[in-house]
From TrEMBL:
GO molecular function: ABC-type transporter activity
Keywords: Cell membrane, Membrane, Transmembrane, Transmembrane helix, Transport
Subcellular location: Cell membrane; Membrane
UniProt protein name: Transport permease protein
Pfam families: ABC2_membrane
Membrane topology classification: Multi-pass membrane protein
GO cellular component: ATP-binding cassette (ABC) transporter complex
Record domain ABC transmembrane type-2: where: 28-253
Domain of life: Bacteria
Protein family (similarity comment): Belongs to the ABC-2 integral membrane protein family.
Length: 263
């Protein structure tokens, strides 16, 4: 009698949705994490806006950069769950299940991106209430689509970096070195100046084009600050290419089977 039986393949869509839902449930059950995610960007927004008011940079200028900060930090730190899942044995269970690995990748990325986008939308609503509409209704809708693209790109980046990590401490160390420069050199804090070396370096940072795209849509009636920014088609092209590249790299690194998968 043949005792070996092939496992029945599991449809990919339920796997994607279940893993994404698990990320959301895990986030909302951690009350301290929810409070910190809401308070931190408001605190940074107020401090930078009030501290640099003397340079004619106010709440309106830092608003798109703060949204980029929310997307960056929330999306990437959501992927810490990959390391925790591996240590708790959950990831190993998913990897040996008869489900395609790309479904696991998409589930984690969709879940992390959804958390980041939800926080960014709450901050966008706060800006509309306190400062008024930052743009036309169409601009606001387009900015939400751009936020979604950035959230997917940054969660994919976090997945790619976290996959080979063995400890959350190491992940935090790498992220501290990597994330802050990425955000500082994205145009979130400094106005675009063609003669500045910071602006020159920022052109090699894909997040720069996300921040510039958000400034195009969320300008609060002051379109003078977007005149020197990359054009909207360029912002969209770079952001979409960034998101596609990060998802593909995440899928590729997760598809490579190593002995570390089951440790």
């Amino acid at each position: 009698m043949n005792i070996t039986q092939e496992a029945t393949p599991v449809p990919a869509l339920p796997v994607v949705l279940t893993l994404a839902q698990r990320e959301l449930v895990r986030f909302f059950r951690q009350r301290n994490r929810v409070i910190g995610a809401l308070v931190q960007p408001i605190m940074f927004w107020a401090l930078f806006s009030l501290g640099l008011r003397g340079n004619d940079l106010g709440f309106e200028f830092f608003f798109p950069g703060t949204i980029a900060m929310i997307l960056l930090f929330t999306a990437i730190f959501a992927t810490i769950s990959i390391i925790e899942d591996r240590r708790e044995g959950f990831l190993q269970s998913v990897l040996v299940a008869p489900a395609p690995r790309w479904a696991m990748v998409f589930g984690k990325i969709v879940g992390g991106a959804a958390i980041a986008l939800l926080q960014a939308l709450m901050f966008l609503a706060l800006g509309c209430v306190t400062l008024g509409l930052p743009g036309s209704p169409l601009d606001i809708v387009m900015s939400v689509f751009l936020m979604a693209v950035l959230a997917i790109a940054l969660t994919g980046l976090g997945f790619f970096l976290a996959w080979r990590m063995e400890s959350t401490q190491g992940f935090h160390a790498i992220m501290s070195v990597f994330l802050f420069p990425m955000w500082l050199l994205s145009g979130a804090l400094f106005p675009d100046d063609p003669e500045s070396w910071i602006t020159l370096i920022s052109r090699f940072n894909p997040l720069t084009y996300g921040v510039a795209g958000l400034r195009h849509y969320l300008h609060f009636g002051d379109e003078s600050m977007v005149n020197v920014l990359p054009s909207l088609p360029v912002c969209w092209a770079v952001s979409l290419a960034f998101a596609t590249l990060m998802v593909v790299l995440s899928w590729r690194i997760a598809a490579t089977r190593t002995t570390g998968d089951l440790l």
